[in-house]
Amino acid sequence: MTPAEIRDAVLDILNTINPDEDLSSLDDDQEFRDQLEMDSMDFLDIVMELRKRYRVQVPEEDYEHLVSMDKTVAYLEPKMKDISA
Amino acid sequence: MYDSIIIGAGMSGLAAGIRSAYYDQKVCILERHNTIGGLNSFYRLRGRNYDVGLHAVTNFTPRGTRRGPFARLLRQLRLTWDDFGLSPQLMSSISFPNVELTFDNNIDLLRSEVARAFPNQIDNFEKLIDSLVDYDDLEQSHFELSTRDRLAEVITDPLLVEMILCPVMWYGNPREHDMDYGQFCIMFRALFLEGLARPFDGVRLILRKLVRKFRELGGELKLRTGVQNIKIDNGRAIGVILDCGDEMSAKNILSSVGAVETFRLCDDQDITHVHKTGQLSFIEAISTLDTYPAELGHDKTIIFFNDSDKFHWQRPLDDLCDVRTGVICTPNNYCYDAADGELPDGIMRITALADFNRWKNLSKDDYGQQKEFWFNKVVDSATKFAPDYREHTIDTDMFTPQTIQRFTSHDNGAVYGATRKWFDGTTNFKNLFLCGTDQGFVGIVGSIISGISMANHHLLSGN
Fold it and tell me: Is B229 in contact with B241 (CB distance < 8 Å)?
């Protein structure tokens, strides 16, 4: 997957978790927490969906990388680059 | 072998089930009753639909709100705001003999009402609002402080204290006389800073969505399946024995039947002796009318009434019921969508305090007679605060503490459960957990949040 495809994958997960949210105006370098009021339980769901959909494991000590879209994509790139979109 | 067995298919059990199923757990919800919902169930009688518990969904926040319990539960269950189909209240009131405070889903109305009726208390009232503890900052240490002490420090007119306590206690206080300050903060927010709403189709709409979601995710729901015993081995819960004698085993068990009620299922006598179940139960007198309440000049959604300047929140001391205070709920008086139209009938529901033991000890004949007697008493009392609708009555129904006990399995038909709560949901047994009323949150949104957070903390770890 390219970074753009990884971004789409994450966006799709965010959309599943926040079905009411309009994510088209998501600011990629702003924290999810501030923009979407997501809490630690919601982050657990992102991790769970990544595992379910792409078999990507995110260990607990790495959760801090999932704070914004930019940082999430950068963190996931080495883990997902060999997955076909 | 299940990952999780959940006892009780009420709001909390269903929500916990959905969370577990999202995490690919093999999960089964066991429900003794032949229908779902627990306290928030529903039934059909003589061709009409009724709700059991629901007067109003508290914690209502408008579409697009991202903060607060309602927004959080929508995210966690992946439901849309529209799934709950909530329509906001018109206007409600706290009605005492010589003073009435109206409120709606915008706290500014209550502010202006306090300023009008208690001009020298408005600054104190503002102080009270500013000092409420936020949901995430509640800790057990200050949770159990006395609300009456706290209010007396801020509000210097005792009548206003009673008027604030009346609705807040009615919608979520398991303790007699006083209230845990943490619970007060939760309920004040739920009622006044968030708000009241109702789905046009009643509670069945919410339950149907939850069950559908649970089943789509592969969860199992077994109705008419009561648990007679939780099997304990070496300090661990290893499974359940059903009423029919069959056994089921699970890695974790989450129970919504109440704390003491759960410990009893484990034969844990030590704990059942130490902790008492709650004492507060209700009757409700439901009248179906041949007209809409608005036609009679009744425009309020909920009226919390009290017939003197002192509000008494206690089990009736020497009678089956205490009708000095009560709640008048009118399901017609919500801002329903034009597309929904009107409810088929006018409905008035009146709730009053009742004593479980006195109701339980009545003979079958007496039970019927007392129901009729108290139906009339409670409606008498309510119609001092709302238009007299009695001559428009075309059908009636009534539930008593025994009905509540049957639906909820809670001892004493205690609507808000035990007086102390188990916030972390843990028990003496390391893989047995509590959710629902006795874990701490009440109301529809509260119980769903309870199921979600207990599943997240206890059932999903290790995934």
Answer: yes
